[in-house]
Amino acid sequence: MIQLTNISKIYTTGDVETIALEKIDLEITDGEFVAIVGPSGSGKSTLMHILGLLDKPTTGNYKLDSKEVSDLSENELARVRNQKIGFVFQSFNLLARTSALKNVMLPMMYGGVPKIERPMKAQKLLEMVDLGDRLEHTPAQLSGGQQQRVAIARSLANDPAMILADEPTGNLATHQSEEIMQIFTKLNEEGKTIVMITHEPTVAAFAHRVITIKDGNIVSDQKN
Amino acid sequence: MSDFSEILASAIEALGLQKTRTALAALGIVIGITAVIALVSIGQSAKMAVENQIATLGSNLLTISPSLQSSAGVRSANAATTLTNEDGTAIQTSATINTISQVSPEVSRRGQVTTGSKNTNTQIVGATSTYPSVHNINLSTGTFISQNDVNSQTKVAVIGPQVVSDLFGTNTNVVGQTIRINRIAFRVVGVTASKGGTGFQNQDDMIYVPLTTAQKSLFGINYLTAISLEAKSKDQIVVAQDQVGYFLLARHKIANPAQADFTIISQNDVAGAASSVTTTLTTLLAGIAAISLLVGGIGIMNIMFVTVTERTREIGLRKALGAESKVIILQFLTEATVLTLVGGLIGMVVGVVLSYIVDYFMKLPFTISLSSVFLAIGVSAVIGIVFGWYPAQRASKLSPIEALRYE
Where are the beta strands (DSSP E) in B222-281? Predict the structure, then answer.
C-alpha cells in the first residue's frame, strides 16, 4: 500500500531549479498492476526512484504500508528496500562475472537469510523464471531476456510485496519483452504489486492501471 | 551479512573475479616492497662486507707511516726515509710505552716474481716474526719467517695463496720450491691461509721475506716503510696512538707535532672512514628505495582509486538491494586489506630472494633489515587500504540512484 501526498522533487544545479515532480498525490493499493507512462524528461523515472526509496523527495509525505518513510535514515531505508521492494532495471544491473544463482542470493545476504537456505531459495526462484538449467551461467553467457529474468528472480529474493520495474523491456527484443510481461502478469496474479515504467504502449497494455505523467504532473490515471 | 567470515569470503571472491585488475594492483604493491627490501638489504650487505674486510687487517692495529717533514711550509723533496729499524726497536723496548703488545717493522714494495716460465708482479713485504700476530695472518703450510732468518738475512719467502696460484697453478705442494724475486732466488718456506681479500691491499697476493733481506738484498735501503703495532686492547688504541706519537716526536727531536715526519693511523680511523663511505652508500640506496616506495605507492593509489571508482555502479546496486553503507565500506576495506597483505607477502618474499641472489653473486654477506621490511609493508598497506577505503566510502555516501547512474 503506497500513499504519496504532495510529493515534489526539485533538482538544483547552481542557480537553476528544475522541478521534476510537482505536488504529486498518488495511491497504489496492494495487488495492483500499474504502468507509469510519459515522454522522457516527464519525471516518471524520478517518481519511480522515490517510490523505490532510492531517492528522497524534496517535500511531501510517503507512507509505505501506512508507515511514514520520508524521514527514515539511510540504513533504515536500506532495510525497507531489502525486505519490501524488488527492483528490475532497464539495464538489468547484474553483478558481472557472477553466476545467476549468486546474483539472486545477493539480497538474501543483505537480508540476513541463513547461508544454508540461500542456494535452495535462489534455485527455486530461477526455476520459476524458467532458468533452472542456467544456475551457474554468468550474465555474459545469458541473452538479454535471460538476464532480465535473473533480475526478476533476484527482485523476488526476499519475497517483497511490491516489484518496481524501470523500463524492464527497454533493452529487449519484442518476443523477449513478451516473456517478461507474462512473468509480471503471473506474479501479479499471485498477489504481487507491480509498478512499471514504460514508454511502449504494447507493454503498458499488460497493466491494469495506466498513469500518465507530463512535466512533473499526473495528467491522467485510468483503468485498462 | 553480519558475520565477518562472510565478508572476507566475498572479498576474496570479488578479487578472484577480476584477475587482471587484482594482479595489476598487487603488482604495484609487490614492486614497491621488493625494491625497498632488496635495495636496503644489499646496501647493508655491502657495508658489512667492508667492515669484515677491515677486521681481517688485524685487531687493535696501529700503523706508523713515514711522511715528509715540512718546515715553514716547505716540504723536503727527499723520499720519506724517516722511519728506521732503530725506531722499531726503541718502541719495543721503551719503558714509557705500556699499551703496545707487539711491534712489527716492515718494508714493502712491488716486485717482479718469476718461477720457471710464469711470472707475476706483486707486493713484496719485508717482515719479522711478529708480523703474523699483528696482522692476523695464519699459515696453511710451512712456517713463517723466524727471528733467525731476520738476523742472518736468509733468502726464504712465505707466499700468499693468490701468488701460489699465479706461479704454480694447481700445484699446491710449493714448500721447498724456489722463486725469483727481482732475479734473486728465494726458497719458499710457507704459504699463508687465504683471507678472501680483494682490492688494493689483498693480503692473499703478497710475498713475505725477512726484513733485513728485503732492505739489503732486494731494495737496497736502510729505512722502514711502516711500523705496525698491536695495542694491548681495543680501549687502549687511542692512548697507544698518543704514547707512540710523543715518543717518536721526542726521538726524532721534533717539538711541533704539526711538523711530525710520520703519521699514525689506527684501524679505528680506517674503519671510521670506510664506515662513513658505506653509510653514504646505504643512505643512497635507502634514498632510491624511498623513491621506489613513493612510485610504488602512487601506483597502488592509482589502481585502487580507479578500480574502486569503477565499481561505483556496483556499490549503487548493492545499496539498492539493501546493503547498508557500513557493510559496503567493510567489504571494500577487506578487499583492499587482503590485496595489500597478499601483495605485501609476495613482495617480501621476492625482495628477500632477490637480495639473497645479488649477495650470492657479489659474494656479499646476506643480511635483511627488519625495519626496511616493516617500513615497506607498513607504507604500502596504509596506502593500499586508505585508497581502497576512500573511494568506497565516498561512493557509499551517494544515494543509490546517483551511484547507479555513475559513468
Answer: 226-231, 262-266
What is the rounded distance in angstroms from the CA atom of residue A196 to the CA atom of residue A207? 8
Of B313, B317, B401, the CB nearest to A55: B401
> Across the interface, which of B317, B322, B326 has its CB nearest the CB of A82?
B322
- Check CB contact under 8 Å for B322 and A111: yes
Residue A139 is predicted with a pLDDT of: 95
The pLDDT score that the predictor gives to residue B77 is 46
- In this structure, the strands spanning B74-75 and A217-223 are unpaired
B314:A81 CB<8 A: no
Intra-chain end-to-end CA distance of chain A, in Å: 20
| pTM of the predicted structure, to 2 decimals | 0.70
Q: Touching check for B399 and chain A: CB below 8 Å?
A: yes
- The secondary element (H helix, E strand) that includes residue B404 is helix B400-405
Tell me the domains of chain A and their CATH numbers. 30-54+74-223 (3.40.50.300)
- The reply to whether residue A74 touches residue B325, judged by beta carbons under 8 angstroms, is yes
Put simply, whether B79 touches A (Cβ < 8 Å) is no
Contact assessment for residue A64 and residue A5, using Cβ atoms and an 8 Å cutoff: no
Task: For the beta carbon of residue B355, count every other beta carbon within 10 angstroms.
Answer: 26
Closest chain A residue to B313, measured at CA: A93
Looking at this protein, which amino acid is placed at residue A192?
K
CA distance A34 to B315: 29
Tell me whether 0.85 is exceeded by the ipTM. yes
Q: Which of A81, A105, A159 to mutate to test the interface with B (most CBs of B within 10 A)?
A: A81
Q: Would you call A87 and B327 a contact, using CB atoms and an 8 Å cutoff?
A: no
Of A54, A78, A97, the CB nearest to B324: A78
Instruction: Answer yes or no: do A79 and B317 touch at CB < 8 A.
Output: no
Q: Establish, for the pair of chains A and B, how many residue pairs have beta carbons separated by less than 8 Å.
A: 63
Contact indicator for A93, A148 with CB cutoff of 8 Å: no
What percent of chain B has a predicted confidence (pLDDT) above 90? 27
B166 closest CA partner among B129, B215, B202:
B202
Q: Per-residue pLDDT tens for A135-180?
A: 999 999 999 999 999 999 999 999 999 999 999 999 999 999 999 9
Contacts of A87 in chain B (CB under 8 A): 320-321
Distance of alpha carbon A94 from alpha carbon A143, whole angstroms: 13
> A109: distance to nearest CA of chain B, Å?
5
Q: b/e string for A29-51 if b means 16 or more Cβ within 10 A?
A: eebbbbbbbbeeebbbbbbbbbb
> b/e map of B134-166 (b: 16 or more CB within 10 Å)?
bbebeeebbebbeeebbeeebbbbbbbbbbbeb
Phi, psi of B149 (to 5 degrees): -60, -40
Averaged pLDDT of chain A:
93
Task: Supply the pLDDT for residue B375.
Answer: 83
Chain A residues lying within 8 Å of B405, measured CB to CB = none
**Ramachandran angles phi, psi of A3, nearest 5°:** -130, 110
Q: Identify which of B10, B18, B399 has the shortest CB distance to residue A55.
A: B399
Contact B325 A98 (CB under 8 A): no
List B74's β-bridge partners, or say none: B71
What was the pLDDT predicted at B8? Answer: 85
Rounded to a whole number of angstroms, the CA Rg of chain A reads 17
The reply to whether A208 touches chain B by the CB within 8 Å rule is no
Phi, psi of A33 (to 5 degrees): -125, 100
